[in-house]
Amino acid sequence: MAENGTNGTNGRGYVGTRTIRPDGVDKVTGRARFGADFNLPGQLIGRVLRSPHPHARIVSIDTSRAEALPGVKAVITRDDFADQPSEFIPAGEMMMNYKDVVRNVLAREKALYEGHAVAAVAATSAAIARRALKLIDVKYEVLPHVIDVVEAMKPDAPLLHDDLFTVGVEPKPDKPSNVAKRVEITLGDIEAGFKKADIVVEREFKTAPVHQGYIEPHAALASVSEDGSTELWCCTQGHFIVRAHCARLLGLDIGKIRVTASEIGGGFGGKTVVYLEPLAIALSRKTKRPVKMVMSREEVFKASGPTSGATVRVKMGATKDGKFVAGFAELKYQAGAFQGSPVQPGVMCAYAPYDIENVKVIGYDVVSNRPKVAAYRAPGAPISEFAVESVVDEIAKKLKLDPIELRMMNAAREGTKAAYGPKFGPIGLEETLNSIKKTEHWNTPLRKWQGRGVASGFWFNIGGETCASLTINEDGSVSLMVGTPDIGGLRASLTNVAADELGIPYEKVRPIIGDTGSLGFTFLTGGSRSAFSGSMAIVEAAKQIKAELCARAAKLWELKPDQVEFANGSVRALGAAAEKFKPMSIADFAKIAGKTGGPIGGYGRINAQGAGPSLGTHLVDLEVDPETGRVTILRYTVAQDAGRALHPAYVEGQFQGGAVQGIGWALNEEYIYGEDGKLQNAGFLDYRMPVASDVPMIDAILVEVANPKHPYGVRGVGETPIVPPLGAIANAMEQATGIRFTELPMSPPKVLKALKEKGANGKT
Amino acid sequence: MAKHHIEAIVNGDPVEFLCDTEETLLDVLRDTLNLTGSKEGCASGDCGACSVTLDGRLVCSCLVLGCEVGGRRIETIEGMAEGERLHPLQQRFLEHAALQCGICTPGFLVASKALLERTPEPTEHEIRYWLAGNLCRCTGYDKIVSAVKDAAATMRKG
Amino acid sequence: MARVVLIGNLAQLTGGVAEFNISATSIKQLYDRLTELYPELGPHLEEGVAVAIDGQIYQETLLQPIDPDSEVFILPQIAGG
Q1: CA nearest A265: which of A215, A219, A304, A300?
Q2: pTM of the full predicted structure?
Q3: DSSP codes of every residue in A252-276
Q4: What pLDDT is recorded for position A639?
Q5: Percent of chain A residues past pLDDT 70, beyond the cut
Q6: Which of helix, strand or coil describes residue A573?
Q7: Looking at the complex, does the CB of residue A181 fall below 8 Å from at least one CB of chain C?
Q8: Shortest CB distance from B101 goes to which of A31, A487, A695?
């Protein structure tokens, strides 16, 4: 049996085309069901009581008055969850400890942030549930709080955990602190590097926590039967992860919980952890009725995990010709109430786009009284790369070098040793720099108060465990089932692949996201992995189907296996036998599937490896209004390496969406805390994300430097786009105002203040 | 406190329902009438995911009370397609990939339809400012604007 | 013998030794050898690290082969968001 290639050359060629997503009609008609759109007969409504204090000991919780309210069917507190021993969950860089997870789900000894869940009720109506919360009597012993990362690192700062001893320092500390971990990577000899430098630029930067900002609040509906079997519907990036966490927290067999991922209204990393799900299950278990829980927008801001605020110091050295000879950085990242900020990838990504002989990056993971950090699109990287890209720009200015030329001179390429160790395979940074240089955008003149900025960015991307099944139905249509929730068009991309692999029309493939009972463990949708890994699993499943069809044909035609071949959706006989036997299509086999052995299908169960990094370069023009401090983005271009775009429109969509999140992060978004440690802008009015009138069209240039380890050359693309905007915009601001902004966001009050200070110094 | 008894027209059909004083139109649509196409993103009128039209006027249904709509005409996303025929806006959104997660899409479609009914040939500037009341976190708005422009052109051709 | 480098904090568990020459034909064998030399490393290798073999990063895969002259880096694990 001849093997056919897996790069779509003998398929209909859907890969790389702009097909209509199969789930699209439901989404444009309001039929698609998101997390809060499910209801079950007899369901109760659950609501959460949250700490009003940023830091307090929980002395006692009296739920008796709430339980007595008619309509209240159950109240749960820390007593309803078994404590968890200290055990880290292998879950990537956002290292979580189960001891912390159970405490984040429901506070035990202490409330560690305003909004921390303390108790939950299930009642026959939302109104009764809300009234019941007011009847829960919690005695708090209010403690001093600390939020800022530098403040939290001071020796006399309020202590969040008396059992937190800094890991990664020698000698091991004998006193607890808020510093959970110190990490470091080193390459070459940093001191020698700085000695070689003709110029050295050193700057300190500060960023504020920002939220992923998904429009859909967290929602879950749990139904537990008398024998403990649990059904859960929730909006999540990873229903298998939700299942694992809930099983662990509630002491259930994993197999006893079946989680269905609803359509998800945005995640960006923020829906990779559990908040409501264990509570809904616990309440349903107690009441034996379904329990539905939905967060309000205020709860989303106060009680789900924004990314770190940070303080970053960068020091770079270069020769007068522009060669980077030394790169140093020190990163201090907020982890929130429990350890696990993305400082490690922040450290590893800081200098990743560049070929530098001598690098030293240090990072600190620091707890403070704000919600536990959750992942946000390329976690940790936007912050550290913002700082480095700003300093790179200053070096360009000091040396009077073109900022694109300077980056080109130092760009990481295939074979470059990354600061975090291994050599890169083929990567597309140079191609993105060249693409930007060639644009009309780059060559358009600017006016006063306008500025142009460029910045590059890097993210690793991952593969991971992924399952996909392809089933041939009796009429030859194909059911595709995959285990990664579809956050933004995945089903369209995967349908392109399945149709090409099997050589059938796109419309004949119907994709669904399987629940946890229908497929093997599939890691969450995140890490820019779902199209990369999903397509690999489909290739595997299709391989099995083709082998099966060839085997059946050989038997039917009484030929040897190497006398038949699958190509273009059919099996045909080779050589002389071709005259005797007409080719049989998938639909032909489907008609006789039962009679030739049973239903035909393939099941790809893989741990996808071979992910390749995606690098990008962004170009932005902006204009500053000196009277109001308002910044208008005039023009924006993204060039990023996708390896191979399975569906160009959805790849462009990732570029554009990530860029606009970066614009918001750079110009306006931040968590604003009062002196009392309470969040002052827990709503969309004052947590100001970009709207349509804030941004122009975003030009997207698709660069394709194939990833040799993927059958189609695919690289993940979802995360990298949020990395360059912060630096690009800061660099454009410098050109527009002559001021190097080192604090994000560069919001109007900050811009006005800086302009006034500059004017007062006599410079215009 | 007794519930209010309300009769109204939703997507051309007469409906009648009971609601508490504090229930919003969004609550009524989603929980009582089972029309879950309108979404709650914020409950404070800042995200537009709950957009509907009330007597032809674009509103956030989370800012309208259920008991205010007696005798009035409400149009939601569920009424946008005509039988099997998608509205040109719905069709163009699909063709332009103007949605990724899709949670904001009903709101954008309702809002865009209201725009095109007033301004059949909107400029990019007019589109962006009209839609400034609808938040999208996934797309960066680029393909949404393209889709609305394209739908406007289609509808002008008739 | 593969050349193996520990990146990040892992070298603290080996008394500062970050580079080794180890004879191993798979990631599992590599972990076993390293744990024999430095028992404190064991739980961390299990907990979750990434392994780059000749530039390609692998995560959570014990059976990946290592060539006799491979360059291997043991890195912190990455997930993403």
Answers
A1: A215
A2: 0.96
A3: --GGGEEEEE-B-S--TTTTSS-SS
A4: 98
A5: 97
A6: strand
A7: yes
A8: A487
The CATH number given to A425-460+612-764 is 3.30.365.10
Q: Complex ipTM, two decimals? A: 0.98
Residue of C nearest to A238 (CA): C81
CB A432 within 8 A of CB A703: yes
Whether B94 sits inside 8 A of A263 (CB atoms) is no
**Do B and C touch (≥3 CB pairs < 8 Å)?**
no
Establish if C35 touches chain A: CB-CB under 8 angstroms: no
Q: For the residues B22-48, what does the mean pLDDT come to? A: 98
Closest approach of chain A CAs to the CA of B51, in angstroms? Answer: 12
- Could you tell me the fold of the domain covering A24-32+463-608? Aldehyde Oxidoreductase; domain 4 (3.30.365)
CB A704 within 8 A of CB A643: yes
CATH number of the domain residue C12 falls in: 3.10.20.30
> Which parts of chain A have pLDDT scores under 50?
1-10, 764
Does the residue C81 lie in any domain? no
- Choosing among 3.90.1170.50, 3.40.50.150, 3.30.43.10, 3.40.50.12500, the CATH entry for A35-143+212-303 is 3.90.1170.50
Tens-digit pLDDT profile for residues A526-549: 999 999 999 999 999 999 999 999
Q: Measured between beta carbons, which residues in chain A are less than 8 angstroms from residue B38?
A: 30
Residue C49 covered by a domain: yes
Of all residues in chain C, the one with the smallest CA distance to A424 is C55
Going along A22-85, which residue ranges are E strands? 44-50, 56-62, 72-76
Q: What is the pLDDT of residue A10?
A: 44
CA distance linking residue C80 with residue A360, whole number of Å: 23
- What would the two tokens of residue B37 be? 């196409």
CATH 1.10.150.120 fits B88-157, yes or no: yes
- pLDDT at B130 exceeding the cut of 70: yes
Q: Which residue in the set A20, A653, A690 is minimally distant from B100, CB to CB?
A: A653
**Chain C neighbours among A 337-396 (CB < 8 Å)?**
344-345, 348, 374-379
Rounded Cα distance between A452 and A71, Å, is 61
- Whether C40 has its CB under 8 Å from any CB of chain A: the answer is no
Q: Nearest by CB to A609, from C9, C58, C73: name it.
A: C58
Q: Do C64 and A421 touch (CB under 8 A)?
A: no
- CATH architecture for segment(s) B4-79: Roll (3.10)
Contacts of B79-88 with C-beta under 8 Å, sequence gap 24+, read B79/B10, B79/B11, B79/B12, B80/A29, B80/B109, B80/B110, B80/B113, B81/A29, B86/A25, B86/A28, B86/A29, B87/B113, B88/B151, B88/B154, B88/B155
Residue intervals in chain A for CATH 3.30.365.10: 24-32+463-608, 425-460+612-764
CA distance A30 to chain B (A): 4
Residue A174: Cβ-neighbour burial (10 angstroms; 0-12, 13-18, 19+):
exposed
* Gap from C75 CA to chain A (nearest CA, Å): 8
Alpha helices in A16-105 (DSSP H): 24-29, 64-68, 98-105
Q: Lowest-pLDDT range, A32-36, A269-273, B58-62, C12-16?
A: C12-16
**Per the structure block, which two tokens stand in for A726?**
């912060």
Start-to-end CA distance of chain B, whole Å, equals 51
